[in-house]
């Protein structure tokens, strides 16, 4: 059986020292080993951004794609081979700005992909512009007098779009983060995991300390029930979205693959794709 | 007796004009006639003039005709808009309900047939189309019984009385016309057809069937005219083969999801038209640099922007060849008949996997929606060749990443996909080394660029008939060149030039990129004049030819949204001679 070391490769990440994304990388490696995966059965698809590099830093099949499109690619991979474990990943700009349409529709579609967002409330790779997760008033190179657009409440949005698995975690809490990713992988259907992953270089407001001070762990809330959708949304609103843990899970909702009419029980890639002559001729008669 | 004629039915959109044409055409196809149908429609569902023109012949057909013999009209507008197409001796068969009139300057014979009245007498005005097809059969000298099979197929689930009612409507229409026309009806009596079973299909269905036979099992796509029939057909059929169609949120998603499917080893296609292709451009570049096979169908329509969404145009050629930033290997295939749409689409998947690059199957609206009689497609002509990819291959153990982008003599590397043991490697749209790891090293950059850009050099050896040629003359007075649906129309005019004593050769470019220079150059060298016929305003094919072949060219262009008529090509070529 593979251990987390088997998910390490020899590539040195080019992230800034202290970047929150290191923990996400480690958590994915640990979670993959903990759920019993073999590296060749894991595909990690990522978008573009500092965070997007993550697919190159895990010893598994990795696809570093284009800005905002990790989700459709990851869904295509899962449809082609449902026997794989598929992780999509990227930054908050990647997923909630340029790729927002895909995020909402991946939630609705519910293909079994685990989507891990490294949310630093800013654009890192392009050196510090505002993101849809930046708070109102947040000053960046593109909002020198402070952002005048509202911050997107991504967890509430996901829940209201029908998400079956919604969770949040924090780069400083490797234990919780690993556990959440394991649960996300094990969830049958789409899972959204938003990780507060500080950018130490460009975001001087939403720092490790800031998150530590402001985050409430759901474990600490007595009687919190992740199966209760209303409670999930109310709790998020009460805490301005700054909670970590499993926020909401619907274990009943079947995944897309389970619902598609006639869909292959094993990976489509394993099928023989030639048509028999009789089958082919049968198709022709419909046009005669 | 005659061996060919043109028939057209017209009325308001949503009035059953399409089904009238369908029933008429399917019945005749089953008699062994060859048909070619072209629908004129607009971008709305109800209302607006629509018509369906069908040409019938005892010989193979690839084009509409200039003229018209029989016009079936459900409203006065149909007569007013179309009467000028009628030949001398042409006939209008119109619903008596709207008190039809033929303009004074027309010598067409008018038969006012009580379509609606007869239908109402039999129970519902919906059957007025049946009365019309009945009347049409009578004028062709065919028994109204030719429709029985089709009518049974459509209505048998509603019970035999519905079948009989419809047959009765057809019979009454036929009888009414026979009585009204008397001996006159005989002027359109068709020679007997050979009774052979052939297919009758639109280009989009041929493409979809080609994808299925070519091994495609997954299709993410977003609806658009005139491509939607491809996804609709596969939505019905793929579940029978374990596969699926996903209607995505947009074409960016469709294209990138298709890249994901192909990356994971399943033949995956998407299909769209101009606006969708514009959205896919960034993703096409990703498939290019990551060397992932990808088949995209573009059924061209009138551009730019929303342009003429339900009209014919061939103006995406340049963007299909060069579209996406940077430089990638790409293949653009342009079938020129419904039959070729099938074989070329099936083959596109082989090319995509053998050369590991995007392949665009370029068609156009006239080809995508034109409905044509096709000889039964040949199963033995469809091959599946996957190039350097075998999902079940046993790979040797290695302690580093697999060299997915290994530099090889032919530029193509062994392809491995997720799930294969010992095949782990990285894939990125960033320039990368042989293992797929990002690299900015200048030597590596040049090696990888050269690898990608030269791997298609072998394509010409392996691509059969990159140009369809009909070149009987060693030296020609005129060489006409086209691509996609203009083929049939050009073929149609060749005999007219021969009658004028001119030697005319014809070349239809089927592989537009990489361009088959060696195949075209000799034809051009042996022609006194070369004319490129295309449905766009800037002569895109002519420009592509000039870039690849040493030549002087003239243009015949049309961009009003309609396909060329044979007479337009004839007259405009003659003017250039
Ligand atoms: C189509 C396109 N537009 C713009 C860019 C430039 N770009 C690269 S990453 C990025 C945003 C990065 O922010 P985020 O997604 O939050 O990731 P981070 O770098 O913070 O991890 C942008 C705008 C691009 N690569 N592609
Ligand atoms: S710029 Fe910010 S997000 Fe990017 S690597 Fe550095 S710390 Fe991380």
UniProtKB/TrEMBL annotation, chain A:
Cofactor(s) needed for function: Mg(2+); thiamine diphosphate; [4Fe-4S] cluster
GO biological process entries: cellular respiration
Top-rank taxon: Bacteria
Task: Please give the SUPFAM superfamilies that the UniProt record associates with this protein.
Answer: Thiamin diphosphate-binding fold (THDP-binding)
Q: For this UniProt record, give its keywords in alphabetical order, as a comma-separated list.
A: Iron, Iron-sulfur, Magnesium, Metal-binding, Oxidoreductase, Thiamine pyrophosphate
Which parts of the sequence belong to the Pyruvate ferredoxin oxidoreductase beta subunit C-terminal domain?
A: 199-264
Keyword Magnesium in the entry? The reply is: yes
**What InterPro entries does the entry give?**
2-oxoacid:Fd_oxidoreductase (IPR051457), OFOB (IPR011896), PFO_beta_C (IPR032686), THDP-binding (IPR029061), TPP_enzyme_TPP-bd (IPR011766)
Residue ranges occupied by any Thiamine pyrophosphate enzyme TPP-binding domain in the UniProt entry? 48-195
Query: Which NCBIfam families does this one have?
Result: PorB_KorB (TIGR02177)
For this entry, the protein name equals 2-oxoacid ferredoxin oxidoreductase
Give the organism the record lists.
Answer: Anaerobacillus arseniciselenatis
